[in-house]
Every structure is written in structure tokens, then in C-alpha cells.
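Hi there. Long-time user, first ticket. I'm pasting a complex I've been working with (about 782 residues overall). I'd like to know whether the download I got is complete or cut off, because the file seemed smaller than I expected. Thanks.
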Amino acid sequence: MAKKKSVRKATGSKKSAAKPGARRKRSRRGEDTGAKIVELAESVVELARNETDPFVDIPIRALSNVDFNAKTRYIEMGDRTQRRNFFNYGQAKRFMQTMLIASKCKDNVEADKSVSIRGIYYLAKHTIKGTKEKTFDAQEECDPILEDLEVALESLREELHVYASSRGAMIGELTFVDTGDTIDATRLGTGGYAIPSIVEPNVIQFKKCNAKFILHVEKDTVWRRFVEDRFWEKHRCILTHGNGQPPRGVRRLLHRMHNELKLPVLVLMDNDPWGYYIYSVIKQGSINLAFESRRMAIPDAKYIGVSSFDYERFGLSDDVKIELDANDIKRSKQILNYPWFAGKKPWEKEIKKMARNGFKMEVEALASKHLTFVTDQYTPQKLKDKKSWLD
Amino acid sequence: MAKKKSVRKATGSKKSAAKPGARRKRSRRGEDTGAKIVELAESVVELARNETDPFVDIPIRALSNVDFNAKTRYIEMGDRTQRRNFFNYGQAKRFMQTMLIASKCKDNVEADKSVSIRGIYYLAKHTIKGTKEKTFDAQEECDPILEDLEVALESLREELHVYASSRGAMIGELTFVDTGDTIDATRLGTGGYAIPSIVEPNVIQFKKCNAKFILHVEKDTVWRRFVEDRFWEKHRCILTHGNGQPPRGVRRLLHRMHNELKLPVLVLMDNDPWGYYIYSVIKQGSINLAFESRRMAIPDAKYIGVSSFDYERFGLSDDVKIELDANDIKRSKQILNYPWFAGKKPWEKEIKKMARNGFKMEVEALASKHLTFVTDQYTPQKLKDKKSWLD
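Hi, the file is complete. Here it is re-exported in full:
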């Protein structure tokens, strides 16, 4: 699949002349989120006035409608949509919920307030007048509705003023403004800047960047090693971590820094299937959040380590070895078959080498050489030896 | 149990004249950690030179040796120790491991470097010369040894230069120095300061505090609500969160701010057994880390909400109710029996009221009133109404 993403929604109003099924222009993405919600609402009202069954077309968020686009080099959603009608016993509740969440988002956008996904559930939950029926019985009902809205409006959750949990931190050669406060990320001690969930341009603006690249590491404990050894200063970079699988805010910030500051993103993960997977999410996006790849994925990100070949390359001792278990082997095979890994010779060699090794290695295992080996020797050597990078 | 904590270790050297079993003076806590490790080593060497079986006495870290001290109002370790001998088939390996970890800690203290618990495992792991025996086979072997050392040396893990995972953040009316960088926590935008794992005075010094109190909330999503609404500014406070059960760094920072800056610590948790428990850990310490209560626990911390009585007190709708499950009911009963809750009438009423309600409530549920109800009305009213606080 290499088609452009198309998003359809209910139409019928004169304002939005597009027919259901028509492609929406990409340029709409820059528009105000509040206005998009109003347009959605007006299209529904118009259908009702025309005595037509009101509906919304929601792009399908399922594996069957997700594919890797070899041209953009990220995971995208396909064209298929599902119509949600008001006069349909099986769809009416979800139709109502969609309108309700949209309305709450609009309130928040207008008030310039944001809310957690848990919060929006509570904001929207109430008893329908004259009944004992709740608008939502559980958050599990609310979350997919929010995702529906994201895809239907082509708005990131963050643009709908909804935040996720945040984790991850940043330190390094960047000065930026966060809601009016100028923050010099070289002057944040050992703690660093706690990356928030919403890092859109209305919240964060970049001011001055002396960094030559971004080094993103998997774990906070590894990040701390690099911070303590002031790696960012010696190598003129920005250090980030996402506490494992990076949350949306971290991915979005990396994406923005990469694109707006033209900084290469170099990724340092454990040498295990989970490390490969996290890297692939940063690079190509994830299947679950395929509709957000365009604003999140960084197809030019590079994997600089830890590689299965590093055991020999760096003369490591067997103290670093952690035996692969059955699940690791299964996951490796799955990853090898992902279209974004498949056919890439260096990755095939890398993953097959891990299987041959029979062991995986953590970044922290490099301490078995000596405590600062990872910051003094390993990473500097990796930075120089671009041939060792995986794409 | 209301006895003072006593810690014993191997003796025999002239320098440390105390006999095994003798109480170590509290004042030793201020001493240099490196020197304590050297002393430990010297005592072992001395025993060996005297042709005595070298040993270390390690305070027992088990429920049987842990109790709530009604006078200090935190959970403490008792006096019981376990001797670890070198010439003992069952103990020799752990003896060796204890010395090895101590030696690695000493190296790091001297080099002024710190390391994660995973890192210290890798630093210490190697093959014993002439054998195929590893010093450590898994991290699970290493972690208790580190805890042994903490209690034996009466040094916090952080003083041994070992860091844990970090999570949690801070914003508010405090200016502090972190490794030479002056950080004004009123100028950190929406992200805030990512609280590191090691916040000892050699890393963090407080400079200027305009806060009247610390408000610690359970979740980052709740914290974000308070940050967005600039609660810290309106109410002159410091806002912290620990992403659930706060990690060591957050607890230690709260402890230091409370004691050094004389700031009350007010805790805002979900109205559920887990919220009560997190509060009790902040206040009295935990059974697992009883040996660190003195440096972590904040017996004067207050629980300002959410209380089981808030449903009526604030006229909440049934949208906030989450039905208690069997586990909640079981945990409530356990908590009610903890010596630090038992006998406190207001807590008994609080927990029994939850059982009578049959439901629990999250802080985020207050959004069902309106988005900023928690920051505009709920918390300000709680701050005024000190009688509603739980101690």
C-alpha cells in the first residue's frame, strides 16, 4: 500500500462540499482543531435538517487497514472507513459518544485547557436525562472513541488537548521555550527536563540549538550514565530517554527536533527483540497508532547499538550474555518478517546473528568492561563508525 | 518495639573498637561512606590476621525484625542481626559477594561516579580465576547484597552511589542547585524538573524557597492538571508527583524539603486502598525499606484527600463511583490493621466509610463537576479546612 491516507466524514453541509468518500486535502491539517470539530458537528446537523440519517465516517483502525508505505517509510492507515449512523440500534450509542467527546474536546480547545484520557472520560460521563443510562460505563468505551475522533479529524490527540501519561526526560545542547519559560537544557543539573505529554508548537518553541544530533536511549538508568558523564557536552548533543517504549510526548518531541532542527536521531537500545521493536516504533511508527505516524515517525532514525556483532567487535566477556528464551526467538522471527525489516540485508544479518549468538545484551552490561566504557569508548566509537549503524 | 536501631558489623580492628553486637553511634551516619567501607574491610582483614574466621553481621531485613515505632512514628528495623562467615560453606559465597559489592561501591564513591543497580551487578560480575564460577549468576543475587550493605553500613543506597529508576517531577516556588546548575522551579514550563534518583546534599542544595507547603499528588496526569492551572503560583507551593508509588528519589527529596525547608507535606491521592497505602509509605516508610525510614519517612505528612466523606461533602454525582472489588475490601481491612492506622479514630472512620460507600473515587473523577474543579474549588477548600485532613 502506498496510497495517500484519506479521511472521510459526514458531509451534506454546503461548507464542506466534499462527498463522503472524497479525499480531504492534506492542507487541512494546519487548520484549527476547534474549527474542524465545528465542521464535523455542522455536517451532522445539516444531514439531520435534510432529513437524512446523520452519520460519521471513521477510518478503520485495524491491522487490515494498516500498511507500511515504502515511499514515506512509515506505517500508514489505508483508505477503508466505517460509517457510524445515528438511526442504527447498534451504532446510536457510539454515535452519541463520538459527538459528546468531540464537544468536550471543543470546550477544552476553546478554554485552552488540556485533560488526561481519564479526565475526558469523567468529563463526558453522565446519566442521560430521564433514564438510568450512563453515557459511558467504563473508560474502555471512551478510549476508542477518542481515537476515532483523532483519525476522523486528522488531529493528533494532543491537538484535541488530551494528554497521555508522561515519562522520559531531556538534557543537552538546546534552549527552548515552554509556555513562556525559557529553558536552557544544558543547565538542568542531573535531573533534566521532564518531557510533557503535549509538546506541540503552541506549547514548545525551539530557540537555540548547539546540538549536532540527538541520542535517544531506552532506559532512564542508561540516560543517567550519559548525563553523569556529561556526554551531551563532550559530543554536542541532546540526550533523551523514554523509559522503555517512549510515550507519545517523547516521540513527538523527537519528531519535531528532527524535522525542525534538522538533527539526526541516533537510537541506543538493548540488543534484544524489544530494543529492535522500540527502535522500529520510533522510526516507522506502530500499528496501533498508524494514524499518527506522519506526526510521530522518524524514518531517518538510525540504530547505533547495541548490535549482535558488538560482542566480538568490542571484545566483551561472557558476563554480558543473557540467554535468549523461547519468546525472544519467536519475537526475533516476527520482527524479521515485518515489512520494514524484511529485505534489509544488514538487519537480517543483525537479527540472525543474535539467534546464532544465542544471547542478548543490555546497554548496562557494557559496564562489565568498566563503568564509563559506554560513554568513553563504546558510543564515541559507534558515532565515528557510521558503517556499523543500522538503518 | 520502640528501641533505637542498632547496626553491628565485623570488628576486631583497633580503629573500630566496638564489639560485635555493640551499638553504633548515630553520629556515624554523617561520616564519609567511603571511610565506612574501608572500616568494614579493615575489620575483616584484622579478623583474618588474628586467625579468626572473618565475618560481617548484617541486620535482618525481614518482617520479623521490623516494627512501627510509636515514638518516632515510622517503621523501623529491630536489633536482630545475622552473622555472615567466610569459613562456612553456606555463607562463603555471600561473604565474597558482600566484599565485592562493597569494593565496587568504594571505587564509585572515590571516582564520584554513580551507577544503577543493574550496572553494579554487571560491574561486579566476573568469572572467578581458575574456575568457571561466576561471582553473580543473576541480579536477584546482587540486590539483597546491596541492601545488606546499606543496613550494615547505615548508608543509604544513594550514599553508596547507586541509583534506582527515576520517575516523578517537580514544579513550584523553589530555587535549587543541582550539580552547579541553578534551577528556578517556577520557570520550567509545563514539563518540570525530572526528579533524579540521587538527591543527596552533594547533588542538590536548596537556595530560595517561596513555598508555604508541598502538595504531592499520586499521578502525573493529576500533577499536570495542577501545573496547567498554575496552582503552585496561586497557592505558593511546590507540586510533586511520583507516578504512583513514589520512587526513592522522590521520597528522599520530599523528606529533605520537609525537614530542611520546614515545609508541610500534603498528600493528594485517590480514595482507594492503594492511595492510603502510598500515603502511609510517604509518612511511615515501608516494611521492605524499613532500614531507610529515618531518611525517607515524613511522619508529619498529612492526607488531604480524596476522602470517603468527600462524596457528600462536595455533592459529587454517582459518575465518580467505582465499585469496590473483593481485593479492595481485603486491602482496606489489612490497612485498618496496620499499627500506624489502627487506633487512629479518623482513619478508622475514613476506611469504614469507604466500605459503607461500597465505592472508591479517583482524583480525576472530580472532573465530572468541571475540568478545573480540583484546582479551583476542591483543593483550595481542603487547604482551608484543616479539620478534614487525615493524620
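A couple of notes from our side: Residues 191 and 297 of chain A are 27 Å apart (CA to CA). Chain A is about 35% helix and 15% strand.
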